[in-house]
Amino acid sequence: MEKNVVTGQQLGLLGGPLYTTYKVLGAIHYAREIGGNHIYWLESNDADFSEINHIDYLDANSELRTLTWDIDSQGYSCGLIEVDSLLVALLNEFFDTLRQTEFTPALRELALRCYVPGYTLGKASCLLAKALFGRFDIELFDPSKHMFKAFIKSFLLREAERTPVGEQCNLFCMQGKRRESVFKAKDGYYLRDGSRVNLEEYDLVPNVKTRNVCQDAYFDTHTYIAGPGEVKYIQELDPIYEFHGVRKANVVPRMSVTLLEPKTLRLLNKHAIELQDALILEKPKLVKKVLKAQTGFDYKELTQRARQLTKEYLTAVQQLGVNISKMERCLYEAIKEDLGEQRSREKARLEKTLKDAETLSDLLIPFGQRQERVFNLFYYMNLYGGLALIDWLYARYDPALETLEISS
Q1: Are 233 and 1 in contact (CB under 8 A)?
Q2: Which of 2, 148, 163, 369 could cross-link 184 (Cys pair, CB 3.0–4.6 Å)?
Q3: What pTM value is reported for the model?
Q4: Where in the chain is the domain with CATH 3.40.50.620?
Q5: Residue-level pLDDT at 69
Q6: Beta strands in 192-335 (DSSP E)
Q7: Where is the Bacillithiol biosynthesis BshC C-terminal coiled-coil domain (predicted)?
Q8: Sorting pLDDT into bands at 50, 70 and 90, what band is 321?
Q9: pLDDT-based confidence at 81, cuts 50/70/90?
Q10: Are 390 and 107 in contact (CB under 8 A)?
Q11: Is 352 exposed, middle or buried (0-12, 13-18, 19+ CB in 10 A)?
């Protein structure tokens, strides 16, 4: 009996966020460990275009940038959207604005060889995955293929039948290039716009609650490599597995690490910043902490102390019978103005230090999110070895790791 190890993820530009790479390498690593097959499910049926139509990265000036493929997706399943000249221009802008390295030209050529105008995003993504991971002999699977849809149709029809009247079914009905939600009524099934639909006449695709069930039925999956969110929701699918008589795959969490670049380590050491602070503090809070550590100047604390002392002074003056109303307002305004000026002077004096703290935050938690959910593999390949970086990551794959230092 074959041991199929599967992982899957919705399509994303240039392979999507870095955690997708971790999932793929996890499937390869675990399959080799147990002597099984590794399969990468490229979820082409997903239609949430806004989740996948952009690239976030740090440009040559270490500034966070977002490039967005700004088109009307028409609600199409993402795998059926065609690559156009706007996407090619976006990819060229990405490579133009990266720090130029010896790896940049080859990576640009690789990307543009996959993203060709007229190709669907599904085809482009499959070509890219083959270029990135093909040497590992991983099987690439596109669930939009007819053979898979024919296999799962009976599962999804049974799922529709057991749906309570008035509820949304755990499936989508393909209407051309769009996947449409289906609702059950007493007299049949309806789409969101109210039109009646005969599910027997159309291709059906799973939703989030039936995708894994269909996957495990099709592949007789031994193990699924999952992200943290997937681990949680897959645990809740037992009733659906039981209803359809499908054996549930083992679920193994993927690796989830933060990459520590040489620049990151230099900034941490230079300013004596604790890594954990940089990993959990939002950018404004990290900058504030660095400012306080470098100067001892805590605007909030000094303001509170000054106001307390002023209050004590005014209370004493008031006891002498003096009207303090005008004095009180003037004193508080003077304190606010003077401490604000001190704060501005300290910030100006430490402008480079504060800029370093901001850069550090962008390297580790860009846009306030985990690095692996923002930057993609190309950003790091461009800086650290091109395609060889994939082999480097695979050689160090370990779900127990929290951070991983990249050598220059």
Answers
A1: no
A2: 163
A3: 0.86
A4: 4-145+210-256
A5: 97
A6: 196-197, 204-206, 223-226, 250-253, 258-260
A7: 257-396
A8: low
A9: very high
A10: no
A11: exposed
